[in-house]
Design goal:
About 75% of the residues lie in helices and about 5% in strands. The chain has eleven helices and three strands; from the N terminus they run αβααβαααβααααα. It is globular and about 65 Å long. By secondary structure, the protein is mainly alpha-helical. It has a three-stranded mixed beta sheet. The longest helix has about 35 residues.
């Protein structure tokens, strides 16, 4: 009996991703919807990157960070959506054990990178609005590169540590994942190893990579609002608000769904709630980000029109 249990623990070579499979009549609609969102995400974010790279006027810290965010969103979408589309189209829901861990690693690394980069962008706005005369001295190119490089390093180290711990787990129960990609909590529910230490580390990393950056964002915007209230003209306040409104919208959408899923015990995790929230931050948010940042920004719109061959556009 013991030998059989050991064999069951070590024989898992693949998992089955059964997200969205309970409603087969909705598969064509979901495939078309996800494919459309994926194509829009990749195209829109690539246009943002090309527009910023081709326009000398946009070679500033705020657009450097925005280009990085667009690149991360593109990679984030490519990590999840192609496999979802293939599963829906072929009805083969299999993913290898190694492939599952690799997908989980890149998903976590890119999600954590989004967290850190949003905090960096909030800090950039804080310096630009609260210390405008010292902005170029504080946000010099070397510091911008350092902030982005530190974000990349921290996010990959945190993701690697959790992936390494997950690779040591035994999966002796069902290998059917009730999700559309290899996420932490659905995988954790299948493990028959002791996951207590893993959950402690996971919540510690969530606090480090979620609560700390969010606190930085909130503190930055508290100072920004305080500075904005001292601006005498309504036009000046509107300009500050329009500069920061798009970033706050992205922050709210991204952090809201992440906290809904990950800041709860794994025992109370709901597969349906998790999938809906996951669709928002893996597909909807990366698709909306370029529109949120470009539609409210006249400089960005002009750069996009130049890239696409139009000589001018109407400014709001």
């Amino acid at each position: 009996m013991y030998t059989k249990e050991i064999r069951n623990q070590t024989s898992i070579s693949h998992f089955l991703l059964f997200g969205f499979s309970e409603h087969p009549e909705q598969q064509p609609l979901l495939f078309g919807l996800f494919l459309g969102m994926y194509l829009v995400t990749v195209l829109a974010n690539l246009l943002i990157i090309l527009a910023i790279g081709s326009d000398q006027h946009l070679h500033t810290p705020v657009y450097f960070f925005l280009a990085n965010l667009s690149f991360i969103d593109t990679c984030f979408s490519c990590t999840i959506v192609p496999k979802v589309l293939a599963n829906i189209q072929t009805q083969h829901h299999t993913i290898s054990h190694t492939g599952c861990l690799v997908q989980m690693y890149f998903f976590m690394a890119l999600a954590l990178l989004d967290d850190f980069l949003l905090a960096v962008m909030a800090y950039d706005r804080y310096v630009a609005i609260c210390f405008p005369l010292h902005y170029t001295m504080i946000m010099h190119p070397q510091r911008c590169l350092l902030l982005v490089a530190a974000s990349w390093l921290c996010s990959h180290l945190l993701a690697f540590s959790l992936t390494l711990l997950m690779s040591q787990f035994s999966f002796c129960a069902s290998h059917s994942i009730q999700h559309f990609f290899c996420d932490l909590l659905p995988l954790l529910k299948l493990a028959c190893s002791d996951t207590h230490i893993f959950q402690v580390i996971m919540f510690a990393e969530a606090a480090l990579s979620g609560v700390v950056p969010l606190t930085c964002v909130l503190v930055s915007y508290a100072h920004i609002i305080h500075t904005m209230l001292r601006v005498p003209s309504a036009g000046g306040k509107h300009k500050v608000f329009s500069t920061c409104g798009s970033h706050l919208t992205v922050v709210t959408l991204f952090y809201g769904t992440l906290f809904l899923v990950y800041f709860q015990p794994s025992s109370s995790y709901s597969a349906d709630t998790g999938m809906v929230a996951s669709v928002v931050y893996t597909m909807v948010t990366p698709m909306l980000n370029p529109f949120i940042y470009s539609l409210r920004n006249s400089d960005m719109k002009r750069a996009l029109w130049r890239l696409l061959g139009w000589k001018k556009c109407s400014t709001p």
